[in-house]
Write a structure and sequence with these properties.
globular; eight-stranded parallel β-barrel; TIM Barrel; 275 residues
Length: 275
């Protein structure tokens, strides 16, 4: 039996059904006290109220979503993106998030300059990391599936995330989020998980459906797809990772259409049978 105290649910999993107060209450009602919070849901009720709510329900905030999206070429747009990241870092500190999940950003419209986009992202991280360190926040690089490179994240492999960590030379203010949905296919996964080691600060679980119809919004519940989740979990935990297993399911055609209490109940079942 897996320890249910290490089960967390990313708010994205019930984002279409529940507000932050509803999600916190709904998860806690079924004994789940880990949550990853999304900034739009937090800002709906205000930072102070959100922090109070999370404390009162004894919630561990396993992640704050999202930081990043810093590949703009326009100076004003990049400056605005950096300011948005600064705001997110401050919010993450107030709610006690274990990390802020950092999604790099895609190519600028009309651009084919992948090298430049990656360089701008690294430059932005160089600016943001000291600010995160000052308030005790860890930025967790999340590489996304390569098919999302153009519009979502130019950071696409765990190997590249490890390289960026090496290049930036940061300490505990920089880590890596391992999401099975984005990394399961990588033939170098075992090696790169071992290389990441203590840099792994978040572990996201879900499944890749064989007939997936949308790269971002058609994730499966654990056990419904093709990912060897127990195998990847074993790799991650062999590095010494002992943190939460965070369920993150974007699912516009299935799980977002269901009763959220049913979704949480099934998550708890699959946590024991498919993770």
């Amino acid at each position: 039996m897996l320890n249910e105290a290490l089960l967390s649910i990313n708010q994205a999993t019930t984002r279409e059904q529940w507000s932050l107060p509803e999600a916190v209450g709904g998860y806690a009602r079924q004994g789940v006290h880990g949550i990853a919070v999304w900034h739009d849901k937090l800002r709906e009720i205000g930072l102070a109220e959100g922090a109070r709510l999370l404390r009162e329900h004894d919630m561990t905030v396993t992640g704050y979503c999202i930081g990043g999206l810093v590949t703009a070429t326009d100076h004003a747009a990049l400056s605005a993106a950096l300011d948005e990241n600064r705001r997110a870092i401050e919010e993450a500190a107030v709610i006690g998030a274990q990390c802020i999940v950092f999604v790099a950003g895609g190519l600028v419209d009309g651009s084919k300059d992948l090298v430049g986009a990656r360089a701008r992202c690294l430059d932005a991280l160089d600016v943001l990391l000291p600010e995160a360190k000052a308030v005790g926040v860890t930025i967790a690089l999340e590489p996304l599936h390569p098919m999302m490179c153009a519009n979502r994240a130019v950071l696409t492999t765990l190997g590249e995330a490890n390289d960026w960590c090496d290049q930036l030379g940061a300490g505990g203010e920089l880590g890596i989020a391992v999401d099975v949905y984005h990394l399961w296919w990588d033939p170098n996964l075992a090696h790169e998980i071992g290389r990441a080691g203590p840099r792994i600060v978040a572990f996201h679980i879900n499944d890749w459906l064989e007939d997936t119809r949308d790269l971002r919004l058609d994730r499966g519940m654990m056990g419904d797809g093709v990912i060897d989740i127990p195998g990847i979990r074993a790799m991650v935990e062999a590095t010494g990772y002992a943190g939460h297993r965070e369920v993150e399911i974007f699912s516009s055609r299935d799980w977002w259409q269901r009763d959220p209490d049913e979704v949480v109940r099934i998550i708890k079942e699959r946590y024991q049978t498919a993770v």
